[in-house]
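ok new one. same drill as before - C-alpha cells go in, u give me an amino acid for every spot. 136 of them this time. try not to just spam alanines like last time pls lmao
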C-alpha cells in the first residue's frame, strides 16, 4: 500500500492511493495532509486511487480528521475505477459531511480537476467556522 500527497496548487492537494490501504498508513497520511491545510483558506482534495485494492485490517473508527479539518476543505474529487464508486463514496462520507464529494473515472481526471478548481473562486472570500458555517 502506498499513500502519497502533494500540494498541486494553492487550492488543490492531491493524494495518490494504491494497493491495499491500512488504517495506520491512512491516518499518517491524513496527519501529513492536515499540515498543508491553511486555517484561513479553502482547499480541495483530489484522491487518485490507482491500482486500489481495498482496505486492510485495523481500526477505521477514527473520524478526527473530518471533525477537525472539514471546515478547511471545500470539495473532494475521487478518481478510481468504476467498480470502486460506491465503496469509496461511502468511505469518504458523501452526503454525511459538510464538503462536496464526487466520483470520477480515470478517463475523467481532467473533469475532476476542473470541478475542484471551479469551486476555488467562490471559496476564496469565505471562511468556515468550527460548525462549518460560511462567513465572508
Amino acid at each position: 500500500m502506498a499513500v502519497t500527497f502533494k500540494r498541486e496548487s494553492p487550492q488543490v492537494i492531491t493524494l495518490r492511493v494504491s494497493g491495499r490501504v491500512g488504517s495506520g498508513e491512512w491516518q499518517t497520511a491524513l496527519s501529513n495532509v492536515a499540515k498543508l491545510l491553511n486555517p484561513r483558506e479553502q482547499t480541495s482534495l483530489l484522491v487518485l486511487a490507482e491500482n486500489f485494492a481495498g482496505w486492510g485490517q485495523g481500526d477505521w473508527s477514527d473520524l478526527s480528521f473530518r471533525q477537525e479539518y472539514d471546515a478547511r476543505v471545500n470539495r473532494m474529487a475521487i478518481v478510481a475505477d468504476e467498480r470502486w464508486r460506491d465503496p469509496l463514496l461511502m468511505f469518504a462520507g458523501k452526503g454525511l459531511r459538510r464538503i462536496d464529494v464526487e466520483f470520477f473515472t480515470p478517463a475523467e481526471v481532467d473533469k475532476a480537476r476542473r470541478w475542484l478548481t471551479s469551486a476555488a473562486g467562490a471559496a476564496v472570500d469565505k471562511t468556515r467556522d468550527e460548525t462549518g458555517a460560511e462567513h465572508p
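The chain has one domain: 2-125. and btw Residues 23-36 form the longest helix (14 residues).
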